[in-house]
Amino acid sequence: MLLLPGHEVMEKCSLVYGRTMTDRTWRKWKRACEIPPAHPHVGEWLTEFQVKCLLVLAYLKKQNPWNQYSYEQVLVEMAKLRRKKEQAKFLDAIAETPVNTLVQPCYGRDLHKTLERLTGCDINPRRLYRIAERHGQKFSKAKQYSTKQINWWIEKLGA
Q1: 9, 29, 56, 58: which could join 17 in a potential S-S bond, CB 3.0 to 4.6 Å?
Q2: pLDDT over 70 at 143, yes or no
Q3: pTM above threshold 0.90
Q4: Which of 25, 101, 37 has its CA nearest to residue 69?
Q5: Per DSSP, which regions of the chain are E strands?
């Protein structure tokens, strides 16, 4: 039996979902797939079937994020994925997920590295001070920047 670490599965599910996941969301998804909570001394290890359930749930949530899905609904969707047409649609949805959808919040001291990773441009930290001053903002190395603010910086960099 193949066992996979929970944190890696969570990263893969958030890629399919297209957003980062909080621990609370992860616990809710595991509960929806009837996966028992992790033991603190052993850690979290998931079977191949549990991983498939979570990936299918991520796919369903990407299609309709506000819908609540039960374990039975996830199993029915897994059964549908056995058909070639449905399976191709599922795999296309996973392949279309862009890499930069998981923009993590970061501190100002790491902002230039994050922006370099997302845009592919070399960014001098001094440039961030100039851009902020030009747009009436204040840049701080100690401040934590949210994903919305990081997207604002990407827009102002012209990338």
Answers
A1: 58
A2: yes
A3: no
A4: 25
A5: 3-5, 45-47, 106-107, 144-145
